Amino acid sequence: MFKALMVFLSLLVAAPLYALDGTALLKQVDRNLSPDSYESYRKLINVEPDGRKKEFTLFTVKKGVDKVASLFIAPASEKGRSTLRLGDNMWLYIPNVGKPVRITSLQSVVGGVFNNADILQLDYAAEYDVEKVEEKGNEYLLQLKAKTKTVAYDRLKIWADKKNVLPTKIECLTEANMLIKTLYFKDVKSFGGGITRPAVIETDSPLYKGYKSVMIFAGLKKRDYKDEVFTLTFMSNIESLR
Amino acid sequence: MKRCLVPVVLAILLLFLPAVAAAAEEAYTFDAAEIEKKPYHFGGYVEFKPLLFGLDRDSAFYKLRYYDDPQGKTLAEMNGRVQLEGSYERDIYRLFVKTNTDLKYSDPAGSSERSVFYEAYASLKPSPSLKIDAGKKTMKWGKGYAWNPAAFIDRPKDPDDPELALEGFIVATLDYIKSFDGPLKTFSFTPAILPVTDHINDAFGNNNKLNFAGRFYFLLYDTDIDLMFMTGGSRPDRYGMDFSRNITTNFEIHGEYAYFRNVRKTVLDAGGSARQVEADAQSYLVGIRHLSTSDLTTIVEYYHNGAGFSEEEQRNFFATVDRAYSLYQSTGNAAALANVRGLADAYGRAGTGKDYLYARLSQKEPFDILYFIPAVTWMVNLEDRSFSLTPELLYTGFTNWELRFRTAFIVGGRNTEFGEKQNDYRVEFRVGYYF
Predict the structure, then answer these.
(1) Which structural domain, as residue segments, surrounds residue A206?
(2) Which of A55, A101, A175, B64 gives a 20 to 30 Å CA spacing to B238?
(3) So where are chain B's domains?
């Protein structure tokens, strides 16, 4: 009887040690995807059902949990456009228009399946709480709920590889669990400086049947910036950071 | 038999070519050369825009322009535009130049060409917090989409095409930026000096004046707020403010206010006698921008132009034109028409009335047609109820190409702003290519 009681008490104490801390896991996913502050280049490719493609190249800088800015460097028709996100605030600067205008996370400055929230993505832990975390074979499944109504997707399901703690697939859902899009993370590779992450993200959506968008990463490296870089007044000068 | 097979094989190849292409595209490439930064940049934009005007031969502005050269019901016009831009950047220094050439041809007016530097300035940027520019540049102050009463040192934009690039003025400016933690996230100050002489900025206003302007920007409680001023004598002193804020993720509100001291305008009385009036004026604008879940963007703005012409002042102008035209028809004497033509610029510009409502609806990629955006724009003079209605189709699916087809219907009775415009309708097709 005494032995059984000891075993029960031991299990009671040991159980929390083995329970998964979803928030810590999500923060680790964020840090493994990118350093806290960094610069990177991305190519976005929109693929139409007939195979026709349109490509955009962006230079992106990020600092901390809520500051990210991107500059279009190709094609020529988009060159010089820049986007800025400060927490929930997003702006688009078009050289011809000459002043930043507010945009929303659900809009897409490039058309196709990726929207502004995907392009100007903050840390997942900054925007979502972990509701549930499970182990599914070689993967974790994190079920997330948006912290506020201003986030593009109400719910996320993240499948993360246990070994590297990197996402392999993310489903973006509405409050009613309707699937908006799925992101597939592929081609895990080293970018140097201790950064190893998927270099390709593919996405498709039941709302855009037959269409696909792809995001390819290059030149991802840790870099620190002054806060003044992430301001409306600086949006026309992001090119000078390259 | 073999000959019969060739077209069949070709047909099969053509049928499956998209699938073959799709399979081939799986190998995505991202070469280092694509992101290499060069110290210099050269690019540009070429546009071809044929236009067809449906003339209103009873309108005041038709009479002013064609009184001695009557036209048919329609008038065709070919327009071309070439914009070239280049920059050179080294360390903290940067040079930027943008030229614009407008070409126009119509029968019987013939051809015309106008080339100007839209912008040409040098920048010095010792830190992300500080930037100094000197040369010709646009400032683009204000938050309004169709109008910007607080854009004190810019040329007025065309509410028919608010996103067009504009020619700047020669200025010396500075941007000082400071970021904070807390409710005030950003503060920036942009002072500007704008000289006006016989040869510099002579279109801006009174000559031989040195004008000072400034803008203070705050990002406070997630709201963009600007305070601005201009003084110096080339134009009446003016003070203004604007704001922009997202009420919800997809719903933005904005506003703009400007106070002008001692604004002068030339008005006509019922008999056609001209006199100058001078008074303080207030202009303001409130607007919204909303994106629906079905990707319909709605922009609505109300604009009060305190320095504009009232319905009665516009009516007196149109009546004066009418009398001058009748006099010309009966006597051949064009002196009265020549007199009133001197006021045509002031009365004929877009948005010269007092109160306007602007609404633009644009639907992104309907029927899953990527890069296709149909839109319709409605601009109404609230005093005389005349308006323009402009449906358009925009397609940007070919890399670096932009195709836009639009028709404008210009509607209003006699003696109303839009009713007295030269045209009843306008059809245009714009093909633009960026390089």
Answers:
(1) 21-241
(2) A101
(3) 44-434
